[in-house]
Give the backbone structure.
Amino acid sequence: MATQPIKKTQFIRCASACKAGARSGFTLVEMSLVLVIIGMIILIVFPALQAVRKSSQQSLTNSNLATLMRASAAFAQANGCLPCPTPAGTLGNNFGHVRGKSGEPLCSDCAIAEGVVPFASLGIPAATAKDGWGRWITLRIDPALAINFGIVPPTAACTASDAPPCLLDASQKGLCQANLPNTRRITVSTFDPLSGAPTITSPIAILFLSHGPNGHGAYKTGVSQTNTLHDYQGPSTACSTFGGFERCNTDDNASFVDAIRTNNPSNPFDDFLLYMDRNAFIASLGSGVCQTTW
């Protein structure tokens, strides 16, 4: 069977189509231009995304701190005492319970007044006991307020049948009673932004502390969600009123610093604190304020 010859017009159309097809892709110049535009978009958008993420982490931290304070107030209303923290090194099912003892009385001596928030005893999710950077929030309480006063709700006025020092002079019992032990009482130092002079706020009943974005001093966690030790990776500056403010919040004593947040490499401070004295805490329960001296 004889083949028909290709007409010249058909050949021209085929050549034109093939040539057009060859030009359908991107050239190197065009690809480079696209990459440059994408890079410019990233440079513009990335800082904004970082700012949004930072703001979200800070908002979550402040929200969790406020939730923990409310949960502690509800705990005090129901049990008549402040929640004792979960001590460092608590393992297994005891983790997240007051004093690191599941099933034990909720109000009792608090030998270790600083540790992880006892989220299980407070009836809140474990995630609420962490800050916006996923680290455990530190809890410190006045241990004199963790014992069992036998009064629920936690405040009551003195009566004629009460023995001294509970007198009928507007004095109160429970969390408001006078002459409580004053050992390991919490103090918080704040600093005047102009003069740098410290102001001591004392005494504090309960304090929650997030160790901020850098996490210096936050409790470490293991594979079993257990709390071990403070993890401090910051400058070696010792705690003092002139520097080392983050060290002041990681040395396991009852003295804390609430300073202006700064990224100064030699003395960074990015902690978030929420604390109340006894009067403010009692007032948050809707019970007025304590009428007795502390």
Residues 58-284 form one domain. Helices lie at 8-22, 28-79, 119-122, 245-248, 278-284. Residues 55 and 132 are 10 Å apart (CA to CA).
